[in-house]
Amino acid sequence: MHTARRSWLLGLALGVGALAVGSLSGCGFELRKAPHYAFSSLYSNLPENAPIGSKLRRSLEISNVEVIRDVRQIERAQVIFEQLQEIREKIVVGRTATGAIREYQLRLRYRFRLRTLQGIELIPDTEIALVRDINFNETGALSAESQENLLYRDMEIDLVAQLQRRLAAVQQL
Q: pTM for the whole thing?
């Protein structure tokens, strides 16, 4: 009797699992694929050692886009990606009754544009703003600093993903 119940529960679980998989495939759910770009080469003025620049370069190169960094070879590029501004801010947004800092807001503002060699703007001057909140406690100041660094890294990854989507949205040069 115990094995019959176990078999029934196993059959029920398999049926529910098959139903869940079937409903996901029917709704159009699909894992995100690597983006496809309308260009195969891009010149970038991103600083060599900048975290955002290296992450973006890697993601573009994975998608078979040649990233040109030498301004003397700019004529080989189909498009020019210009970083106009990157600002990191740490703003106090909450204090205790005694005036001690309780909460910060980390902000990353990034401005860029994309144009052809002939100067045709494909993506005009655009700003992406990312915000993360961080609670602060004086007793955990060292851990708050490492948490802040992790949040900035998370924002960089999010920013690169948004840049990829915007670059992939360019249909024609």
A: 0.73
pLDDT single digits (tens) 137-162:
766 655 667 888 899 999 999 999 99
The secondary structure of 14-51 as a DSSP string is HHHHHHHHHHHHHTT--PPPPP--S-SEEEE---TT-H
Q: How sure is the predictor about 17, in pLDDT bands with cuts at 50, 70 and 90?
A: low
What's the CA gap between 82 and 87, in Å, rounded? 15
44-72 in b/e form (b: 16+ CB < 10 A) is bebeeeeebbebbbebbeeeebebbeeee
Tokens, residue 57 = 């370069």
Domains and CATH numbers, the chain: 32-168 (3.30.160.150)
Give the number of other Cβ atoms within 10 Å of residue 123's Cβ: 17
Calculate helix-pair angle for 141-168, 51-62, nearest 10 degrees. Answer: 40
- SS3 of the chain: helix, strand, coil, percent, to 5: 45, 30, 25
